[in-house]
Amino acid sequence: MSTTEPDPESKHKLLVAQFLKFGVVGGVSFVVDAGLLMLMYAVLRWNGELASLSLGRWLVQHHLALFPPTTETGDALIKVTRNASLIVFQPISAGIAIVTSFYLNRRWTFGITLPEGRQTQFRRFVSLYIGSLVLGSLVLVWLSTFMPVFPAKIVVTALTALANFTGQRLWTFKKP
């Protein structure tokens, strides 16, 4: 075994430490993402009503291919209409969380402090997360049809976390 190659136990400890740090960064990013999503979905107002209702109504009326007509009425119709806004709000909140996650993971989880390779790493990081974002957004909209939005968001986050760690470790921040 060469002197530059760590022993298997050290590799295992490094992997566990990176995964734990990734989890902490993921927790911070989740708070950023879910907090912004809930702020836009449940607090932000536009023309005297919830922005999720205004935006959802516009989306449902103008993008029928994405949101087919519904027979729902009353509170169920309001829920369907507000949930349509998730297709816009989710990418905004996730985008901000992605940038937060890149800087924290690069510096803290994977210990990269030099500027070399940062642009390539950021492109890879964003590519990885765009794939997760698209799939996660579609799954979130689907899950929100039969469960509340916040628990659905937790499920989506858990499903994408493992794939993102693997991609970051083996591709984005891979050390030569």
Description:
The structure is a single chain. With 176 residues, this protein is mostly helical. Helix content is 75%, strand content 2%. The protein has six helices and two strands, in the order H-E-E-H-H-H-H-H. It has a two-stranded antiparallel sheet. Helix 2 (51-62) packs across helix 3 (74-84).
User: Which word captures the global form?
Assistant: elongated
Integer-rounded radius of gyration: 20 Å
The tally of helices reads: 6
How far apart are the first and last residues' alpha carbons, in Å? 18 Å
Helix percentage: over 70%
Unreliable residue stretches:
none
Major sheet: arrangement of strands: 1-2
Class based on secondary structure composition and strand pairing: mainly alpha
The strand count comes to 2
Question: How is the main sheet built?
Answer: 2 strands, antiparallel
